Amino acid sequence: MIFMRRQVPLLITMIAGLVFAAQYYIPHPQSEYMLTSVTKWLQIIGGFALILGISSLFQQHAVKIRRKESGWGYSLVLYAGIVGTIAAGLLANGKESVDGSMTAFGWVYSFMMVPLQGTMFAILAFFIASAAYRSFRARSREAAVLLVAAVIVMMGRVPLGEYILPISGDVSQWILNVLNASVRRAILIGVSLGAVALSFKIIFGVERSYLGGGKE
Which residue from 83, 92, 93 is spatially nearest to 61, judged by alpha carbons? Predict the structure, then answer.
């Protein structure tokens, strides 16, 4: 039983990882066909995972509504939103407009989803401004350099800043294309090496947390 629960998944993971890592270096039609087939299976599994997630969400909020816990009214709103959106999408076949007229699904997206997204990002703007204020305080030389660079970039990205300081546009572009790009590449290289290392740990069974039992 332990063998089926522990060793078999590790064996499947190792074989699949090695096969699909080698697939990128095998320019053969069968290799491409195998990747296409597995991609379709991943979409199917993703669909089942979505159903599982939605059912779990419904169950969790049903318990909250039944027990009248704090905020259970928001759970009712969640139920109404999910069921209403699913019904509107099924009736409209997932289309936002038909023959130039907006469907119920399109109305939900345009007049509910888009304003909610705008509200969320507007709220996030205050958190970003607060974090920027704390980060840009010139308490050291490095913070002072960061503050000067940020001011130049912000001035170079808006017409008023370029009007006040005409050279700010060129300097801002240089900072973004040279200094910022080099740092971004270094971060991407580090992230890529970390992803490769984690992939090898998963393939060879060193990292087993995805089995639900840590490394045991």
Answer: 83
In the block, which residue shows the tokens 């920027």? 132
| H-type alpha helices, the chain | 2, 8-23, 29-67, 72-91, 104-108, 114-135, 141-156, 159-164, 168-174, 181-203
The whole-angstrom separation of Cα 112 and Cα 106 is: 10
SS3 200: helix
Q: How remote is the C-alpha of 98 from its chain's centroid? A: 31
Helix or strand run (H / E) with residue 98: strand 97-98
Q: Is the Cβ–Cβ distance between 94 and 88 less than 8 Å?
A: no
165-180, pLDDT tens digit by residue?
A: 888 888 888 988 888 8
Name the burial class of residue 156, with classes exposed (0-12), middle (13-18) and buried (19+) by CB atoms within 10 angstroms of its CB.
buried
CB atoms within 10 A of CB 97: 13
Q: How many CA atoms lie within 13 A of 163 on its CB side?
A: 3
Q: Say if pTM beats, i.e. exceeds, 0.85.
A: no
